[in-house]
Design brief:
Length: 178
């Protein structure tokens, strides 16, 4: 944004004249006293002043100013869109974290029920009330429930990490602006 402000100022400078100053002093050191190195030409100085002012440039200056202003408006619009995009991503992460948190809680309950079911099947097998395949099925169900629980915990951790990154990135961008 600061650069676009400077570009507008630069474009507006076309309305004003350019003035240049130049000064020079010289001394010729030589033992030869005739020709160009005589006493009148040994020491000298010059001063120059120049000015350029475009009286008519075919509205080029006003076009440059309008172009610089349009570029600034474009950047402002992009900045607003960027901020809204980040806000949308943060909202989406909050919703994802909420959903994943509920899923983690439910899968933790499922692990508890599956573990209890497996223990019941093991005791029933010891008392010869169920077959071996029922115990194995109970163990498989418990393993799947644990896998689901661990996946949901991972998804929750990744959601929290993504949210932290988005918020940190936005704060960093805000603090680097003048």
């Amino acid at each position: 944004m600061q650069i676009s402000d400077d570009q507008i100022t630069e474009a507006r400078s076309g309305y004003y004249p350019m003035i240049g100053f130049q000064a020079e002093a010289h001394t010729i050191t030589s033992d030869f006293n005739s020709g160009l190195t005589n006493t009148a030409n040994r020491d000298g100085w010059t001063i120059g002043i120049g000015m350029q002012w475009n009286l008519f440039d075919g509205f080029q200056t006003s076009g440059k100013v309008n172009h610089a202003k349009a570029q600034q408006r474009k950047l402002q619009s992009q900045q607003i869109l960027l901020e809204q995009g980040i806000a949308l991503q943060v909202k989406q992460q909050f919703l994802s974290i909420k959903s994943t948190s509920a899923q983690t809680k439910d899968s933790q309950e499922a692990v508890g029920y599956a573990s209890e079911n497996r223990q019941l099947h093991v005791r029933a097998y010891q008392d010869e009330l169920v077959e071996t395949k029922d115990v194995i099925e109970a163990q498989i169900v418990e393993t799947f429930a644990q896998g689901t629980y661990y996946r949901s915990r991972y998804a929750l951790a990744m959601g929290l990490l993504s949210l932290e990154y988005l918020i940190g990135q936005n704060v960093e961008a805000k603090t680097s602006m003048p």
